[in-house]
Amino acid sequence: MQEILTDCGAEDVLGLQIGGPSGTFISNQEFDRKLAFEDLATGGSFIVFNNSRNILDIAHNFTHFFAHESCGFCTPCRVGTSLLKKQLDKIVEGHGSAGDVVALEELCQLIKTHSHCGLGQTAANPVLTTLERYPELYQSQLKLISYEPGFDLDAALETARRMANRDDAGAHLAQIDVE
Amino acid sequence: MNKTITIDGNAIPFEDGQTIMEAATAAGVYIPHLCHHPEYTPHGSCKLCTVRVNGRVCSACTFPAAEGQDVLNNTKDLNDDRKLITQMLFVEGNHFCPSCEKTGNCQLQAVAYYLNMLDDHFPHFYAHREMDASHHEVMIDHNRCIFCTLCVRASQQKDGKDVFAISGRGINKHLIVNAQSGLLKDTDLEASDQAAHICPTGAILIKRTGYTVPIGERIYDHKQIDEVALAEESRPLSKEIDHG
Fold first, then answer.
1. What is the C-alpha end-to-end distance of chain A, expressed in Å?
2. What is the mean pLDDT of residues B100-108?
């Protein structure tokens, strides 16, 4: 890896995506690894990210890509890639809480193991390969509460408030329990 | 001498050309499934029948049985994953068992019972799905469609028609009917067609028959789906199977 990076004059490298979105993300601590079927396989795709890039943004972008690309034939990929998109959005947007990264990984393994074809079997790789290398990055996104619902509680009450013609404090819900 | 595979350590005989599902069913071994039906070409899409064949993950309904196969079926790991896949189907559509007229006769519900599914686990999609009540005898509630394609296959392979198809991609996949208007009333579907009776959930229903059998006296109110499936699917397949 280092040889290729030197040859192409890459500086200030954060990490590499080898083999496209379904391949492997490697950190800048692994540049002694080799481009080979036995190590890092690729059909040619080799993406270099510098330190101005955000790892979670990369995983987020690729995960949305796979949810869009799923043909929908099998349950694990059709529903799973969309659930993965939702779960990652929840974490990246700062609504994750304890247990959400564990749930994210559980979902990745399910999609990887049970999908019918290679798309589903590799769709979780952007999350899995970055989660393996930067677990603290995912954890640091989580709120220090035990649980936050996956949707906006107060917004969900809007129709009921309008119908009941009230807007007092009792007609509103906090998203999380304030202790 | 008979050829055999092993399923969970037990020797199961098979004939050339049989899938693992067919060999298992004939031998009285239940493998959970929704999109599989013995009378139709296997589809392999629901992934409920996922088994491990010599360590490799395979769909039992499409994978041919062969000498030397050591199959894992009824294991905790596989049943845990099958439960998660069932939960995916539940959150993808809108499945309200207590108010559904198919309750008790629904295979999705029965598989969930069998796998001890006690919650939805995943966040709901709250998908907006239409109903089609245009046909005078048959209705479609798209909220309950799980895209098993059994109605598509039954219409083509049994009824000699081509009433149903799946359109769209990914999470936007949906059931369509073969009419310019997109309405069931403008197709050549009749209530006596096998396609109108094959739905494993409550997505395709015969009108005015929903409560002829009271809730509490229906198939899966009293029997587990493994017992029902083995009794129905291992017998000679001449008689119509009606889950409705």
1. 50
2. 97
User: What total number of domains does chain A contain?
Assistant: 3
Contact B81 A78 (CB under 8 A): no
Residue type, A31: F
A69: contact with B, CB 8 A cutoff:
yes
Kindly state whether B46 is in contact with chain A, defined as any CB-CB distance less than 8 angstroms.
Answer: yes
A33 touches chain B (CB under 8 A): no
List the structure tokens of B144.
Answer: 């309950």
B243 within domain boundaries: no
- Residue contact B125–A82, C-beta within 8 A: yes
Strands B70-72 and B3-7: parallel
- Contact B232/B239 with Cβ under 8 angstroms? no
Do B63 and B131 fall into the same domain? no
Q: Residue B170 is nearest to which of A71, A76, A110, comparing CB atoms? A: A71
Indicate the burial class of A31 (C-beta count within 10 angstroms; 0-12, 13-18, 19 or more): middle
SS3 content of chain A, % helix, strand, coil (to 5): 50, 10, 40
Nearest to B171 among A76, A78, A151 (CB): A78
The beta-carbon neighbor of A72 closest among B81, B85, B169 is B169
Cβ–Cβ contact A119 with B under 8 A: no
- At which residue do the structure tokens 């029948």 appear? B49
Which phi and psi (to 5°) does residue A38 adopt? Answer: -75, -20
pLDDT confidence bin for B239, thresholds 50/70/90: very low
Give me the domain span that covers residue A15.
1-53
Same domain, A103 and A138: yes
Q: Which residue has the tokens 């059931």?
A: B175
Whether residue A67 lies within 8 A of chain B, CB to CB, comes out as yes
Show the domain range for B193: 98-233
Residue-wise pLDDT tens digits, B28-48: 999 999 999 999 999 999 999
Q: Would you state the torsion angle of the CA atoms of residues A76, B89, B91, A90, taken in this order, to the nearest 10 degrees?
A: 0
